Structure formats: structure tokens, C-alpha cells
Amino acid sequence: MFELTLQLALILFAVALIAGFIDSIAGGGGLLTIPALMWAGLPPAAALGTNKLQACGGSFFASLYFVRKGMVDLRSIKLSLVCAFLGAAIGTILVQMIDAKLLELVLPFLILAIGCYFLFSKKISEDDRQQVFTPTVFAFTAALGVGFYDGFFGPGTGSFFALAFVSLAGFGLAKATAHAKLLNFATNIASLIFFLIGGQVVIVLGLIMLVGQSIGATLGSRLVVTKGVKIIKPLVVIMSLGMSIKLLWTQYM
């Protein structure tokens, strides 16, 4: 039975602040917040819905900071934002009808592969390179696909978006992280809408954590601007390894 006390609110606020900091740099903050919400007594669906509310705060303020710093060209990713939103909406609807067991089995290895790519690839730098996909093709493939994944399952979405921007759009790592956060905000909003419709959001708790997320995300996004690849690359690798271990442990232990 869930009961929101002052002590519990302060603990979850602190968890959200740390998660927002990590999420704005490397993704994976949900690995902290979702278990914390379930530990607090929320059933799984309500934990996921409430998590989306608080995650919207972190992704919004991180996105706002990146836009203000001129790291994001909104006009060039308008279509990607729309596709990411639609993909997440479709995923959120379908996850209520389809068994996600297969994805659970494959996901740890996909996330581990992302970590290895960031660790060993010589292409990872601050400099932009020649793009593989045009913005339109990127929108209807990577943005739509990762958006669908976020609505359907979720863990590591920020890392998937960042990888797509680096490998397909030719972005430098800091620029990729900034754009990834903007698309992640779009997918969070889409999923939140359908969780609200389903009555799966504890609004008061979500808003408390949203404040913590916003503070953490603002601090983390500042480090992205000032430190760039020096902090993003190792944190992505660490979070990818952590996510893989956590997901494998949940499945097999």
C-alpha cells in the first residue's frame, strides 16, 4: 500500500535529482527512479507512469539549456521530433497488448553493444562528420524506431538516440547528446499522455520528483557543454554496463 510521507518524498526527490544529472549526460536515469518508485510501494504500471512524469521535467530543462546554448537546431529536427512522438505513442499503446518478453531477453546485449561502441570506436569525438542519413530519412527510421522503443519498453532510450545521432547523422558527441535529449523529451510527453489517460500516474509524487529531476538535469547539461566528450563517453560506457547487468540480474537471478 503506497503512502506518501515527508521522508519518502525527500528520498525520492534525491533519487530523481541524481537520476536527472546522469540522464542528461548519458541516459539510464530510469534505472534509479523506477526501482525506487516500486520500492516506495507503487505497482509496476503506476511506477512507469509516474516515472514518465518526473522524467519530463529533466528532459525539458536539459533540452531548454541545450537550446539556449545554441547546441540544437530546432528547424533541422522538427520532423524527427514529430516522428519520435508518434513512435512513442504507438509503442505505449502496443505494450499494453503485446508480450515484451523477447525484447527483455535481447535488450541487455543491445545496451552492452552501445557501451562497447562508445568505448572502442575511434569515431567518437566532438567534431561533426559526414552524415549517413539525411534529416528526413533519420526522422522516419532512427527517430521513429527509438521513439517506438521508448514507448514500448524504455531503458537506455537516451543512449540509443545519442548513438543514432553519432553514427547516422554524423554529429559530434556533445551535439548528439543535446539533440538526443530533445527527442527524449518528445517521447516522454507522448508516453505520459497515455499513462495519464490510463490513470497510472501519482501526480503529487511525480511533481516532487520532477523538481529534483529538473535540478539534476540542469547541472548535468552544463557539464555536457563545458566538458563534452571527456565526461559523456565514460559515463555512457558505465551506464550501459550498469543497465546491462541490472537487466540480466532481473531476468536470471
From TrEMBL:
Organism of this sequence: Shewanella ulleungensis
Main location: membrane
Statement: the UniProt record of this protein carries the keyword Transport: yes
Keyword annotations from UniProtKB, A to Z: Cell membrane, Membrane, Transmembrane, Transmembrane helix, Transport
Bilayer-crossing regions: 44-67, 79-96, 102-120, 132-152, 158-177, 189-211, 231-249
Pfam families cross-referenced by the UniProt entry: TauE
Bilayer topology: Multi-pass membrane protein
The family this protein is said to belong to: Belongs to the 4-toluene sulfonate uptake permease (TSUP) (TC 2.A.102) family.
Compartments it resides in: Cell membrane
Protein's name according to its UniProt entry: Probable membrane transporter protein
